[in-house]
């Protein structure tokens, strides 16, 4: 998988050299490149924003630098890459979308700042490639970088070979539409709190049943809408 990120804060993504995704990059499973949007400007101040037409607070990101930066990644014609634009107006990011992103060969992320990116950037690239506006959640961030970091981590860990034990990807929250069951490890008793005895029983059928019941109970308590309730 190839991942290109366009941002005015490319150093924000240096953290991707660490941990699991760092290993995936070293092994060539995932190739991540952060591009500085200001490299696609040509004025002395490296300007990427301007005042909004129609008035209003804040600044809007100019279309020209985005066009030059994204063309520099996907060329000047049609592209099979998927352009992902984080936005409060996007579709909610879910595990299903993480799976869909993980199946892509080439992802291009456009990290906006200020009050967002000129709409014509999305409109233009929608004529040349698939474009998805995706929201991390129902709150307002200062830009798209945090959202892109979350999306890359959620999708990257689903790319075959990135996580050592694929089984660990199966019993996760949201993987089967339910929240995950509680986990325990040694010691069997800690500050007066004991591990549920069933987990020490060696009865794998009883353990699986208990874990599923815990998933249902936790989901009903915390996210009843996932059960259609
Ligand atoms: C006309 N007005 C109408 C009100 N808006 C409000 C507003 C205010 C700040 C920002 C900041 N910002 C810039 C780029 C960018 C990308 C993603 C996100 C983002 N926030 N929350 C998520 N889940 C996100 C994701 N993913 C935020 C971003 C965007 C919008 C401005 C324009």
From TrEMBL:
It is an enzyme of class 2 (transferase). It catalyses: guanosine(37) in tRNA + S-adenosyl-L-methionine = N(1)-methylguanosine(37) in tRNA + S-adenosyl-L-homocysteine + H(+). GO terms for cellular component: cytosol. Keywords: Cytoplasm, Methyltransferase, S-adenosyl-L-methionine, Transferase, tRNA processing. It is found in: Cytoplasm. Residues 1-227 form the tRNA methyltransferase TRMD/TRM10-type domain. Its EC number is 2.1.1.228. One of its GO terms (molecular function) is tRNA (guanine(37)-N1)-methyltransferase activity. S-adenosyl-L-methionine binds at residues 112, 136-141. InterPro entries: Alpha/beta_knot_MTases, tRNA_m1G_MeTrfase_C_sf, tRNA_m1G_MeTrfase_TrmD, tRNA_m1G_MTases_N, tRNA_MeTrfase_TRMD/TRM10. GO terms for biological process: tRNA N1-guanine methylation. Specifically methylates guanosine-37 in various tRNAs. Belongs to the RNA methyltransferase TrmD family. Homodimer. This is tRNA (guanine-N(1)-)-methyltransferase. It comes from Agromyces fucosus. The lineage of its organism: Bacteria, Bacillati, Actinomycetota, Actinomycetes, Micrococcales. The gene is trmD.
């Amino acid at each position: 998988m190839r991942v290109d990120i366009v941002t005015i804060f490319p150093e924000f993504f240096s953290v991707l050299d660490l941990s699991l995704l760092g290993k995936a990059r070293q092994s060539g499973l995932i190739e991540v490149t952060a591009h500085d949007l200001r490299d696609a400007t040509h004025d002395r101040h490296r300007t990427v924003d301007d005042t909004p037409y129609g008035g209003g607070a804040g600044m809007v990101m100019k279309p020209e630098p985005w066009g030059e930066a994204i063309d520099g990644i996907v060329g000047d014609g049609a592209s099979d890459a998927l352009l992902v634009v984080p936005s409060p107006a996007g579709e909610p990011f879910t595990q299903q979308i993480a799976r869909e992103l993980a199946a892509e060969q080439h992802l291009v992320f456009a990290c906006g700042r200020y009050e967002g990116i000129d709409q014509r950037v999305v409109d233009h690239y929608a004529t040349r490639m698939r474009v998805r506006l995706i929201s991390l959640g129902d709150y307002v961030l200062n830009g798209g970088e945090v959202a892109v970091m979350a999306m890359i981590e959620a999708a990257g860990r689903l790319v075959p070979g990135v996580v050592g034990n694929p089984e660990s990807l199966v019993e996760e929250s949201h993987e089967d539409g339910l929240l995950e069951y509680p986990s325990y490890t040694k010691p069997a008793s800690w500050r007066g709190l004991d591990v549920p005895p069933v987990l020490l029983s060696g009865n794998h059928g009883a353990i699986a049943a208990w874990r599923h019941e815990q998933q249902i109970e936790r989901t009903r308590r915390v996210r009843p809408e996932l059960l259609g309730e």
